[in-house]
Amino acid sequence: MKVFLFALIAAIGNALFVYGQRSSTTSDNPFYFLLLTLILCTTLFLASALLSRAPMDLQYILSNRTQILFSGVGFFITFVGFYWLYSKQGATGYIVYALLSILTTSIGVGLILFREPFNRYHVISGLLAVSAIILYGIGQNQLNN
Questions:
Q1: I want to staple 133 with a disulfide (CB 3.0 to 4.6 A). Which of 9, 28, 85, 99 is the partner?
Q2: 42, 60, 88 — which closes off a domain?
Q3: What pTM does this model have?
């Protein structure tokens, strides 16, 4: 299943990001950590682009400039949100992020905006994700008492 492989690659990258951010010392200015992380990330993307066999296509960039703008703002918001989430709540707070991602990305973007196929099994998996969040909340409550 390609979706599993691609999701696994993204999950491993996310785990590396979370580990690095969560194990770092906190700063009064979270943008230092994020900026340096982004500089390294951009350097890796630049190296990958330069090693790519495809030529840079200015027409592609121009025709996708609005989408690039949305995605760039999305990256920024995601990185800042992750920093606050992991700094203030810890890595286990990712469970809440995962459910909210299901709602905003899978349902909001995929199902509503792009009309991607969705069936009862997807609905059931979403309901199970909601139950996971409820159980997480109960678990957090137990830790706080």
A1: 99
A2: 88
A3: 0.77
